[in-house]
């Protein structure tokens, strides 16, 4: 089944600096969704680098509109994992969304853990490896904008339906390139682990330590 909305948050983590970054959202095309052991296809585009972002994702369980922040968590059915693939450096003249919405740029799954199984979503360790190298390693206790705030903000703009997905943003420490032939693995405590392959028909290469922000 395909979600009617696949939304991703920006600026949701303080990144250990104790600051609250501005928050925003964008909609990612549902054709970006792939599953475990599938392949992320890097497209021919003007991007300077393709990066991974390991994220907790919320799956909604009931129709929700204009919900109060204090009641927003009632709309959650469960949690899963997502790798938000980003094409950094796409010219701003093309807008922000092309960086995020290419086909295969939203690996998701492989399991859906119900809300009651994760009583504290603000204490989950999130890790991401490229091949055997640990790149991202952070905890959701650094989430500066809590889930209720994010859901309330979204529901003021659009109605959230069962099966819709909200990715919660990432801590940007440890971001790096994804290149042809690599395997990217995400793991979230209490949820599970998922790996995807990377294919680049153009065989581009980047410095593995490079991090080009948009």
Overview of the molecule:
This protein has 214 residues and is mainly beta. The strands form four sheets. It has a six-stranded mixed beta sheet with strand order 2-1-13-6-7-10, covered by helices on one side. Strands 4-15-14-11-12 form a five-stranded mixed beta sheet, with no helix packed on it. A two-stranded parallel sheet has the order 3-9. The chain has one domain: Alpha-Beta Complex (Fumarylacetoacetate hydrolase, domain 2). It starts with 5 loop residues before the first strand and ends in a 15-residue tail after the last strand. Strand 14 and strand 15 form a beta hairpin. The chain is 5% helix and 32% strand. The chain is built from one helix and 15 strands, in the order ββββββββββββαβββ. The model has no long low-confidence stretch (mean pLDDT 90).
Please supply descriptive tags for the structure shown above:
six-stranded mixed beta sheet; Fumarylacetoacetate hydrolase, domain 2; mainly beta; globular; 15 strands; 214 residues
**What's the tally of helices?**
1
Low-confidence runs of at least 5 consecutive residues: none
- Helical fraction equals under 10%
* Rg measurement, Å: 16 Å
Written as H for each helix and E for each strand, in order along the chain, the element string is EEEEEEEEEEEEHEEE
Determine the oligomeric state from the structure.
single chain
Strand order of the largest sheet: 2-1-13-6-7-10
* CATH homologous superfamily designation: Fumarylacetoacetase-like, C-terminal domain
How many structural domains can be distinguished in the coordinates? 1
Question: If classified by CATH, what would the architecture be?
Answer: Alpha-Beta Complex
Between the first and last Cα atoms, what is the distance in angstroms?
32 Å
Nearest-integer average pLDDT: 90
Tell me the strand percentage band.
25-35%
Structural class: mainly beta
CATH classification, class level:
Alpha Beta
CATH topology value: Fumarylacetoacetate hydrolase, domain 2
Give a quick account of the main beta sheet: strands, pairing sense, barrel closure: 6 strands, mixed
How many DSSP E strands? 15
Shape: globular
């Amino acid at each position: 089944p395909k979600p009617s909305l696949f939304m991703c948050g920006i600026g949701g983590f303080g990144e250990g600096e104790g600051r609250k970054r501005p928050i925003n959202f964008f909609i990612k095309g549902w054709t970006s969704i792939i599953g475990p052991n599938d392949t992320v296809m890097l497209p021919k585009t003007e991007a300077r680098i393709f990066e991974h972002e390991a994220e907790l994702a919320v799956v909604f369980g009931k129709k929700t509109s204009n919900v109060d922040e204090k009641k927003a968590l009632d709309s959650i059915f469960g949690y899963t994992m997502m790798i938000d693939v980003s094409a950094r450096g796409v010219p701003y003249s093309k807008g922000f969304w092309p960086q995020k919405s290419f086909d295969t740029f939203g690996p998701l799954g492989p399991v859906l853990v119900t809300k009651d199984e994760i009583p504290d979503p603000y204490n989950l360790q999130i890790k991401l490896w490229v091949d055997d190298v640990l790149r991202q390693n952070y905890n959701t206790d650094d989430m500066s904008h809590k889930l209720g705030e994010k859901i309330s903000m979204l529901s003021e703009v659009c109605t959230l339906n069962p099966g819709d997905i909200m990715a919660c943003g990432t801590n940007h420490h440890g971001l790096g390139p994804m290149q042809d032939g690599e395997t990217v693995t995400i793991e979230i405590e209490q949820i599970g682990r998922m790996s995807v392959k990377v294919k680049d028909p153009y065989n581009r290469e980047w410095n593995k330590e490079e991090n080009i922000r948009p």
